[in-house]
Structure formats: structure tokens, C-alpha cells
Design a protein that fits this description.
alpha/beta; 7-stranded parallel β-sheet; two-stranded antiparallel ribbon; 11% strand; globular
């Protein structure tokens, strides 16, 4: 289940963003010393590597779909050379017909695509309801009680959120109506097109309607962001309302089932060949996947748009993440497809709180380990400690130690006024390996566009890009060595920061295993030193 930012947190984030006017668009690739921003020193790394040969590395991006025709991406898209395009035949006998650029696990044979899907919490509630509704613990034998207790947790969580969503919708609709009403009133009263906190605060009147409006707006401005206009407040409130209405219509709707588009048997986990070859995701929102792919691989040095982190990679497009929660079956099969078709790095900028088929996903993760493939995963945007809160997939389920080929990534910021951490980022001294830039990241958008985006979803591809860079110039490295290099070369910060989701100050080093931020230049130096030792 993807948790969204509350309006207050959204507004706070936008308030911070107002200070970004001087922030370089490519800040995540810049150097902390030379450029005074907490980038990962990509450009500095390439200075060290000048004159060295590199090998093409395939990076699989499991996401919402990718605009493979984008001007800054089309030259770096992986092509399955063993497949003849559009002949309706599985030429390479891998189980997927016409999979020229990758595969779409959430598409149908008729060309339709899943856009929105429900949250896993809702799907689990619906699955377990007939079996456990009206039952109590004593109705079950001891060995049967584990699933019943799981059901109790699902039931409590689903019904709480469903009730809260109904209440929030009514409350926010009322506030939205009031804000729009008073915005019109005060635009006329103040003879201005911008109603803001300062203007409202100066109002002096004996009119009860004006005073009532002043009181309401003053309290809302103080509770959110005093620097924004009322128009901006209305806009962001409207975004929250859209999300809550979407939750009601799709995310928590027990009757919503877009899986009929795919036409597979959801219970057959080891299916292959279901879906279609539309990796762009026609008639769906593929912004997320396009943005992620651009961070990793946007063509460097072409004087167009941006430069991605890695300069000699091919992006394998795997569509498996809808607007809602991804299915375990699709995640596992996408990982296996990536491994079987030559990917050395897999980026996974998604996550959820429930995973009914976890073991099938972990079998795929272990399969990737057996083939030496590095998996890079976003830690999530719930401002939670994932040492304690569930965030799937992860690399520690039922195991004594973490997988050496899995990298879990939190989101760092550029460092304005000691602000080193994304306010939304999950963290964890045991289960988040390191941090990477994930605030105000400028990358690709569909239809040759470019936009900023925030999230651990952006931090993960920064890290995946650095990993691909290492594998490109040091092709003998194993997946576990790449992770070790990333961890050991990360840039430590001796600073105290606000722990995401709270006002508590903690040492930055306490938020992850490594205690640092990815640094490409230092990673290259470390890889080079290892290479020299090996040569001896």
C-alpha cells in the first residue's frame, strides 16, 4: 500500500521547494565540495575514468512503463536482438512473444493495459473476509491461528483506513468549499488577485462574514504554510481530494478488479507469457517509469535534456507497477525475466505494506543472487522506520542476515540549511543500506518532457546508475562486491538531522546501515584500488 503525504507535509515540502531557485537542475550528479550540494559526484567520477574503456551494462527498470521514444532515452533502450518484431512468434523461445524492448506484465492480449489497481490491503481483506468473517480465535486449532491473527490485523487496518477516508473526504470537501468561497470574497474585498497570509492578517473590519473568513484563513495558513497564496492552498488541497476520491473508487474498492484485462490466473504464480509487449503502457500514466529511467540512463553528452548517471547502459523496460499496489506475481516474474535476459542491475522503485505471496518473490530474488544480478530497491516514502514497519519487497524476511546483492535506498536532499534528508523518506539502521539524492530531482517526463520529482523512487535509480557505472568500467566485479563498494565508499555526514516524520533530532548516521550518501567518485577509486590489488 503506497502511503501518500498529508496536505500539511505536501505544503511543507512545497514551501522548502520555494528556496530551490538557485539549485542546479543536475545537482544530483554534482560534487559536495566543488558544487556545494550533496550530489553523488558523478561528473568527478568520469574525470577519474577519462580514457578508460567501458562495457555496456543492461539495467532493468521494473516500473509503470517507460516512454522508450523519448528524445533523451531512445538511444539507450535495450533491444532483444533474438526477437523479430511484430511477427507474433516467440523467436527466442523465452516464453514471451515479440518482447523486443522488454515486457508488460499488466497488459492484455487485446492491447488494453491496467492503469489503476487496488491496494494489496484491500485485496487481502476481500480474500480473507469469507473465511474469517464472524469467527473468533477459539474457532480454530492452534496451527490454524496464525492466519486468523493475520486476518485480524488486515481487518483492523482496512476498516480503520476506510472509515478515516470517508471522514477525511467530507472534511476536506467542506474546507475546499470554504477556501474557494473566501478566495473569491477576499479577491474582491482586497482588490487583489493574490490572497495570502500577510494580506489576510492586515484586514480590519466589523463585518462578521469578513471576520469569520479572516479567522478561518489565518488558522489554515498557520497550520500549513504562510508563504503560499490561497490559490496554491486550494490547488494542493484539490490534489489531496483527487487522491482520496481515487482511493474510494479504486484503491480500497473491494469490487474493483482490473486484472480481467490481463486475463491470467492470479493463483498461477509461475505463469510466463501473460501480459503484452507494450512497455510504454498505452493510455496509462508512465511518468514514474520514464523519470526513473532518465535518472539512470538519459543520454549523456547529447546536449539534450539531462545527463543520466551511467554513460554506457541499456534500459530494459519491464512494466509491472500500476497506480495502486503491484502484484507479487508480476514482481517475481519481472525479476526472473530481467535475470534471464541479461540484466546485471535491476531497479525497483516501488513497495507496499502487504505481500501475500512473499515467498515467491523471494525465490525470484534468490534466483537473481544465483545469477549475480544486483537488485536496487527504494525504501519508501512513509517517513517510517522500516526496521519496524513492513515494506515489501525487502531483503530480510525470515532470514538472519540481509542479502549481499540487495541495496535498499533512502532519499537524501541537497543540503540547504543542513537539510540532508527527504522529509518523506523511510529509514532504518538495519534495513536501509544507504541514502542517495531523492529531493527535487530533474529528469525525463513522457512526450519529450522534463520535470522535477521527489521520492526514494528517485534515490534508487541514482544508486542503480552508480552501480551500473561501476560494472561498466570494472566488469569483473560481482554483485556483492558492487554493494560492498557502494557501502564502503558512501559519504558520511557528521550532522544531526530531523528524523523523517518527527521533530526528533538524530545523527544522520543512525538512519542507515552505512550512515552515508552514495558517492560515485569514491566508489570508482575504491573499485580501482581493488582492481589494482587483483592485478598484482
Amino acid at each position: 500500500m503506497k502511503k501518500r503525504l498529508s496536505i500539511a507535509l505536501m505544503l511543507f515540502t512545497i514551501g522548502v521547494s520555494a528556496q530551490e531557485s538557485d539549485l542546479p537542475k543536475n545537482w544530483f550528479n554534482l560534487d559536495p565540495v566543488q558544487n556545494k550540494v550533496n550530489g553523488v559526484s558523478t561528473e568527478k567520477a568520469y574525470e577519474y575514468l577519462k580514457g578508460k574503456e567501458s562495457k555496456t551494462v543492461i539495467v532493468a527498470v521494473i516500473d509503470s512503463g517507460i516512454d522508450i521514444l523519448h528524445e533523451d532515452l531512445k538511444d539507450v533502450i535495450w533491444v532483444n536482438e533474438d526477437e523479430i518484431p511484430d511477427n507474433g512468434i516467440d523467436d527466442d523461445n523465452n516464453g514471451y512473444i515479440d518482447d523486443v524492448y522488454g515486457w508488460n506484465f499488466i497488459g492484455g492480449k487485446d492491447g488494453r493495459n491496467v492503469d489503476k489497481d487496488s491496494y494489496e490491503l484491500a485485496r487481502e481483506y476481500k480474500r480473507l473476509l469469507p473465511k474469517y468473517q464472524g469467527k473468533v480465535k477459539s474457532d480454530f486449532k492452534k496451527k490454524e491461528r496464525a492466519e486468523f491473527e493475520y486476518w485480524e490485523g488486515v481487518k483492523e487496518a482496512f476498516e480503520k483506513i476506510a472509515n478515516e477516508s470517508t471522514g477525511q473526504l467530507q472534511m476536506l470537501e467542506n474546507i475546499d468549499s470554504q477556501l474557494k468561497r473566501y478566495n473569491k470574497l477576499f479577491e474582491a474585498y482586497l482588490l487583489t488577485e493574490r490572497v495570502d497570509f500577510k494580506a489576510v492578517e492586515k484586514i480590519s473590519s466589523t463585518d462578521q462574514v469578513i471576520l469569520q473568513g479572516k479567522g478561518l484563513l489565518t488558522s489554515i495558513f498557520k497550520a500549513t504554510d504562510e508563504s503560499l497564496s490561497l490559490d496554491s492552498l486550494i490547488y494542493f488541497l484539490g490534489e489531496d481530494l483527487k487522491q482520496i476520491r481515487t482511493d474510494a473508487e479504486y484503491s480500497y474498492n473491494l469490487d474493483f478488479n482490473p486484472r480481467e484485462i490481463v486475463g491470467d490466473d492470479p493463483n498461477r504464480l509461475d505463469d510466463i507469457g501473460y501480459g503484452n509487449n507494450d512497455v510504454i503502457g498505452k493510455n496509462t500514466d508512465n511518468f514514474h517509469g520514464t523519470h526513473v529511467a532518465g535518472i539512470i540512463a538519459a543520454k549523456r553528452g547529447n546536449s539534450i535534456g539531462i545527463d543520466g548517471v551511467a554513460n554506457n547502459v541499456k534500459i530494459m523496460a519491464l512494466r509491472a507497477v500500476p497506480d495502486g499496489d503491484e502484484r507479487d506475481k508480476d514482481v517475481a516474474n519481472a525479476i526472473r525475466y530481467a535475470v534471464d535476459n541479461g540484466a546485471q542491475v535491476v531497479n525497483m522503485s516501488f513497495g507496499k505494506s502487504y505481500s501475500p505471496n512473499t515467498e515467491y518473490v523471494y525465490e525470484a530474488i534468490e534466483y537473481a543472487a544465483s545469477k549475480g544480478v544486483l537488485l536496487v530497491h527504494a525504501a519508501g516514502n512513509s517517513a517510517e522506520n522500516i526496521d519496524e514497519a513492513d515494506n515489501f519487497p525487502n531483503d530480510n524476511f525470515g532470514r538472519k542476515k540481509n542479502w549481499p546483492h540487495w541495496v535498499e535506498v533512502g532519499a537524501s536532499s541537497w543540503g540547504e540549511e543542513d537539510d540532508y534528508v527527504g522529509v518523506f523518506s523511510n529509514y532504518g539502521k538495519k534495513n536501509v543500506d544507504l541514502f542517495a539524492p531523492g529531493v527535487s530531482i530533474y529528469s525525463l517526463a513522457p512526450d519529450n518532457g522534463y520535470e522535477n520529482a521527489d521520492g526514494t523512487s528517485m534515490a534508487s535509480p541514482v544508486t542503480a546508475g552508480v552501480a551500473a557505472l561501476l560494472l561498466s568500467y570494472f566488469p569483473d566485479l560481482k554483485a556483492e562486491q558492487v554493494k560492498d563498494i557502494l557501502m564502503r565508499s558512501s559519504r558520511s555526514l557528521d550532522v544531526r538531522v530531523l528524523k523523517p516524520g518527527s521533530s526528533e533530532e538524530v545523527k544522520f548516521s543512525q538512519l542507515s546501515v552505512s550512515g552515508g550518501i552514495v558517492n560515485a567518485a569514491e566508489a570508482v577509486k575504491l573499485a580501482e584500488s581493488m582492481n589494482l590489488k587483483k592485478g598484482r
